[in-house]
Sequence to fold (132 residues):
Amino acid sequence: MHHEQLEQAGPGDNVGLFELFVVHFEQAGPGDNVGFNIRNVSIKDIKRGMVASDSKNDPAIGVENFTAQVIVLNHPGEIRKGYTPVLDCHTAHVACKFAELVQKVDKRTGKPIEGEVVSFKSGETGVIKLEP
Fold:
């Protein structure tokens, strides 16, 4: 079995096993929920928001910004550039500023809507550049 090397700001060791719903797999892909054990690392050493990655070939790195497709479900009024909600991603909670409203997207077709984007309202979807 191939083992991936994990490192963090403290202890690190080899992953012994990946499981996907109690089925053994050689690897997992984006969006897969997995559980794994790391030898010589206690569950008490793992903190909320930590990210596991292959530190030698493809290490996880922080970003200055990222682009996301956002759906406004229920918000009173308009959302404009500069709005800073707290985003929940797995176990992390991070305030992210809407730095640029890139485009609106037609929710029925998924195609971009032409024109400058000034704001989003409930029920609208679009692409937004966010800054943590």
The longest strand covers residues 97-105. The chain has a mean pLDDT of 82. The CA atoms of residues 62 and 91 lie 16 Å apart.
